[in-house]
Amino acid sequence: METTLTYSPATHKPLTFHTAREDFIGGTDNARAYLERCLETIDAREPAVLGWVTLNREGARQAADASVERYRAGRPLSLIDGMPIGIKDLIETRDMPTEMGCAAFKGNFPKRDSALVRALRDAGAIVLGKTVTTALGFLDAGPTTNAFDARRTPGGSSSGSGAVVGANMVPVAIGSQLVGSVIRPASFNANWALKPTYGGINRGERMGFSQSHVGVHAGSAIDMWQTTIEIVQRAGGDPGHPGVYGTTEAPKPIKPKRLAVFESEGWPRLDAASREAFEKALSAIAAQGVEIVRRGQSQKLEALERAIADCTALSMRLNAWEQRWSLANIAEQHMDTLGPSLRESLELGRGLTLDDFRESLREREAARTQLAALASECDALISLAACGPAPLIDDIKGTAFPTGDVSFSCVSSLLGAPSVTTPVLAVNGMPLGIQVMGQHHDDAKVTGIACWLANASLG
Amino acid sequence: METTLTYSPATHKPLTFHTAREDFIGGTDNARAYLERCLETIDAREPAVLGWVTLNREGARQAADASVERYRAGRPLSLIDGMPIGIKDLIETRDMPTEMGCAAFKGNFPKRDSALVRALRDAGAIVLGKTVTTALGFLDAGPTTNAFDARRTPGGSSSGSGAVVGANMVPVAIGSQLVGSVIRPASFNANWALKPTYGGINRGERMGFSQSHVGVHAGSAIDMWQTTIEIVQRAGGDPGHPGVYGTTEAPKPIKPKRLAVFESEGWPRLDAASREAFEKALSAIAAQGVEIVRRGQSQKLEALERAIADCTALSMRLNAWEQRWSLANIAEQHMDTLGPSLRESLELGRGLTLDDFRESLREREAARTQLAALASECDALISLAACGPAPLIDDIKGTAFPTGDVSFSCVSSLLGAPSVTTPVLAVNGMPLGIQVMGQHHDDAKVTGIACWLANASLG
Questions:
Q1: I want to staple B180 with a disulfide (CB 3.0 to 4.6 A). Which of B346, B409, B431, B433 is the partner?
Q2: β-sheet with B126-131: strand ranges across
Q3: What pTM, to 2 d.p., does this model score?
Q4: Which candidate in A202, A241, A325 is best for mutational testing of the B interface (most B CBs within 10 A)?
């Protein structure tokens, strides 16, 4: 089965949960019926999308029935009680294996919930299944295809989370981002997504990288935000971090006064149609009275661009050092399970010294300082969320980025800055996101600005 | 078998490795013979000390033989090639289970090395066995007894690591500290120990707490330091941290100009003999021309004391929030495996809100600022490493601190500051350490000052 859909921001109908919840309370719908509709969509779309590693249909039905009872008693546990959700298969779940897209972890089943999974269950959400990740969250692709065109990549590493939300199988899925793993697949599959401030959502047992973040993919800004806050109120951010600030009420649209455009190392790689779509959107934003700051108009913006000019390679060096011991463990026993990108990272890590790593840390810190300096110059920064719409899988197989170029999404990982992508553009019938990036802890503000952009008819 | 030894800093002969290594190179000793002597000591002392959970004698012999070959070929891998070492059983080892002192993890065997274990093996060290930890590194005691008196506590949570080094079974053992878990057992068992700057040694998979640190217990300052640096050069610090700074050459003794004495909440709980021994030591230090700054003589020191006045409770609150989701996982399936201190922490965590946690983070940050302010007032801070020598197990069973009062050792955990304890005092024939605590990244400097103290005949 092959799927080709034409994406249009104006007519796209994403799956939402907050709307259905009103009907749960009113008694005209319920969590079990909602789940069954999700399962029907899964049955129809999954043969082409291949976004799930494991589905726990019976467990989900039991959880949905319990939710129905809570609503009937007038006691839902949270704003996401009864919401079916997908969990990236890097994250541990007590009732399903956690295989991380890597044969070395085949059958790995620690039988415990990661922090955010525990929080989701405590909030009454329904943990429906595990979504496909590239191997160990790196670049080697899994089987998943794009929700809008099965010949195209879903992006990575949160391939499944991006695709199952894009295909309306679930309203929300959890992803994670080390380089560009939430914002990019979200863009490719017409998701909203929040990659929060570093440390904003508790990573649980998987803390091995100083640039990794948990992120939330959703069909709507409201579901994205409410899921984030319901998790953070229960499991917090990473140890020692305050967690995403905000209430469960989704931020209202915020019209910014001034937005700075960051280009990053991805700018020269943009295709003409994507660049044109973005420039047209910028003109539309400016026409509504928002000042747009471009390269050359601000010394501080130029300084940031210089500091992120080598963003991807710098991130890869940091990650390679930080994972070299765990990759060495795997290589020793299961070398054959490592794909080309992981082998390359292992080699890169082995070639680095502690002093190299320390120098990379200083470069990253310097880039973060340049971001902070922009606080007085703009309300937020914007850019495309990817170098263009999802490429054809056959076109990028065997390249350095077999799930798509990471450069636009890598910036917020390096900076630890909050970023929200909103699916406001279509290029050649495929979705393309615009991302809003802010200062640390501006998660609510960038969400509000992204909501304003989504309402501003930019397409 | 019962052991009662009388400790005297002047006559105590700890087991050292760096001295033997010279003989390995000279060919008059070798790693296999050294290991066999360790195993003889273990056979003699372990029936009373009970410091090991698992011993891998055959694996250690093979590793020792390989080390012998490397020395024979003139190619040792590092300064710790051939060194037998114990690993606290919170830390994963590919060839032994990791049961964390908790029946919920009975048989847990992930078959991979944690970052520092991997680094130790890469440096040629011999991972001899896993040492007893209190349950999950908290307060509920295991079977281990004090190396100098089997009726007394070895301290915790690094109970086994402290005791096996104190009993000369191995020259070095790895511990970890969340509240007072390295410095206290080291003091009780006459170890040297370094609890490094926060993030200084890679914690590997166990990153669940923002106050946890890996530490190194040793019979000598040189072995302590060289082991630290050999690990850090290979596995670094925690992700995103620069790791302990310094070369493999152990710091030379550093005579300080000015030392500030911190009292902490433990001061009123000191027994008269320990207080007298400490005051006598301070007088001896002053007599050698070092200025001693006491409470009341410095406003900044007073400000620090106020900021750490609630150190233990503040630390417990932070930890309780940070571990509530993982304890909830265990409680759900294995409630009967949780001892009283873990149940109490679970209850405490459940009663806290995210805002409570954020307020505790701010208090901790404020305390760290007070420490930083002291940088211009003194070269380092000193204090006792514990409230006195190891208490009798029967006297503290069922109390809030069943492995001894944590207050003196908790300070460096809260502050994330480097601390070294040196076994320079004896009280009633039992060891008592003096700790030197410094500014962040002053690990080498506090080690050097501790070496000077050790040479200064304070006892």
A1: B409
A2: B52-55, B126-131, B84-88, B172-177, B213-218, B192-195, B419-427, B430-437, B380-384, B258-261, B291-293
A3: 0.96
A4: A325
